[in-house]
Specification:
Blueprint (H helix, E strand, L loop, with lengths): L11 H13 L11 E5 L2 E4 L4 E4 L2 H4 L8 H13 L10 H14 L3 E5 L2 H18 L9 E4 L9 H6 L14 E2 L13 H11 L3 E6 L15 H11 L3 E5 L23 E4 L11 E5 L1 H4 L4 H4 L7 H16 L2 H19 L4 E7 L2 E6 L8 H10 L2 E2 L1 E3 L3 E4 L7 H17 L2
Helix pairs in contact: 3-11, 4-11, 7-8, 12-14
The site of pyridoxal-5'-phosphate has 15 residues, from helix 5.
Pathway: Amino-acid biosynthesis; L-proline biosynthesis; L-glutamate 5-semialdehyde from L-ornithine: step 1/1
Catalytic activity: a 2-oxocarboxylate + L-ornithine = L-glutamate 5-semialdehyde + an L-alpha-amino acid
GO molecular function, one term: ornithine aminotransferase activity
């Protein structure tokens, strides 16, 4: 069977799944006709048992590989004990996870959430409360500044943080976003924009919140030294520096947290995605007592946040990150990825950008049929899972546990697609 939108044949079983999506899932959702049923390590299998190499990691969720046996065992253990213990009582797993994060990253406190957006939202609330109580910003005037083209999630507050928003979702949360109160637009990576915005409006700005590498915008790497300059400017203007590490954190960019690559220490760090190794929805915020002591868990905690299954899985996932030295592996495998792709001199690829195992292939402007969507479809057809990022980029982000053989096999398929595409 051939779909009108797909360049390749879809099996009857896959078609059934795709039809269910089209009929019953809001928006029809999945752009690629691949129905995955099983995953392990860096591999996935579809409903027809066709095997794929994962070059996407479900958008940085499975940094530790799919179904890592230690993370799975930890999740199952907590699940078999009962997964509903939470506020107003204590679960040992939550305390142990917070302690582990403190030992790894040095922040006084951790507060757990479920999705990345919820954690980014919590960071905004913490920063605003700090802005009123500590910085003494007049009531109602507190501004949270972001960078243009940022992505922090899909809730109404996190879409309000973004520069591009559908007006059909408005009105948006006021006094958040990439434009300062006096109208200065802050582009990502442009330190002079931030300087000007803080000089104009620093007194009203509680926090500057950025991704250390913009992920959903297409893996946009800022100039070297940017994070350091951001940290200095924020300090100078008494503005909190908030780093959203939901996509870049936990080994993905070749450091346990991406901002550590520049030796900076943000005031708040937002975590998500890989925190529970892909076994459970767990996110959260790290910060010191100067900010975190201002909030009450009942003000920002939600019912399923800090669920014992997620916390137990996260403790194991952090152990795997450290024990298997995944940040260094990301650098090693990333170097191999880049050197092999560069040597292949791929047609239509003008740049390979990223760090660790967080990369995008940036396409040149011609010919028009060489689109990221088409290349990703062809990759799926030949057994590699990747994803388009924007109109010009293809995201290459395998699990950090990927073997050299799997990586090279996936790269060979990728090179084949580019060579055959014209
Ligand atoms: N923040 C960043 C930097 C992200 O990349 C994402 C998701 O891609 C989010 C927040 C939102 O996370 P979630 O989809 O879990 O809500």
């Amino acid at each position: 069977m051939t779909s009108s939108k797909s360049p390749y044949t879809i099996s009857a079983k896959t078609q059934e799944v795709v039809d269910d999506y089209r009929k019953y899932v809001a928006g029809g959702f999945a752009p690629y006709p691949v129905a995955l049923t099983r995953v392990l390590g860096s591999q996935a299998w579809d409903i027809d048992e066709k095997q794929y190499i994962d070059f996407l990691s479900m958008y940085s969720v499975v940094n530790m590989g799919h179904n890592h046996p230690k993370i799975l065992a930890a999740a199952i253990k907590a699940m078999s004990e009962g997964a509903v213990i939470n506020l107003p009582f204590h679960s040992p797993y939550y305390g142990q996870l917070a302690e582990k994060l403190h030992q790894m990253f040095g922040y006084d406190k951790f507060v757990a959430m479920t999705s990345g957006a919820e954690a980014a939202d919590a960071a905004v609330k913490i920063a605003r409360k700090w802005g009123y109580l500590t910085k003494k910003i007049p009531e109602g005037k507190c501004h949270i500044l972001t960078a243009a083209a940022c992505y922090h999630g899909v809730t109404i507050s996190t879409v309000s943080l973004a520069s591009k928003k559908s007006h059909l979702f408005g009105p948006f949360v006021p006094s958040v976003g990439s434009t300062s109160p006096s109208g200065k637009v802050v582009a990502f990576g442009m330190i002079n924009d931030l300087r000007e915005a803080l000089e104009l409006d620093g007194e009203r700005i509680a926090a500057f919140m950025i991704e250390p590498i913009q992920g959903s915008a297409g893996i946009i790497v800022p100039p070297k030294g940017y994070l350091k300059e951001v940290a200095e400017l924020c300090k100078k203007h008494n503005v909190l520096f908030v780093c959203d590490e939901v996509q870049t954190g936990l080994g993905r960019t070749g450091a346990d947290l991406c901002h550590l690559r520049e030796g900076v220490r943000p005031d708040l760090v937002v975590l998500g995605k890989a925190l529970a190794g892909g076994m459970y929805a767990l996110s959260g915020v790290l910060g010191d007592d100067n900010t975190m002591s201002l909030i009450d868990p009942f003000e920002i905690g939600s019912t399923m946040a800090a669920n014992p299954v997620g916390c137990s899985a996260a403790i194991a996932a952090l152990d795997v990150l450290v024990d298997e030295q995944l940040s260094s592996r990301a650098n090693e495998m990333g170097a191999l990825l880049v050197s092999t792709l560069s040597a292949a001199d791929l047609p239509h690829v003008k740049e390979i950008t990223g760090h660790g195992l967080f990369y995008a292939l940036v396409l040149d402007d011609k010919p028009p049929k060489v689109t990221p969507r088409r290349i990703v479809s062809l990759l799926a057809q030949r057994g590699v899972l990747a994803s388009a990022a924007g109109l010009k980029r293809i995201r290459i982000c395998p699990p950090l546990t990927i073997s050299k053989e799997e990586l090279l096999k996936g790269v060979e398929i990728l090179i084949g697609v580019f060579k055959d595409i014209e």
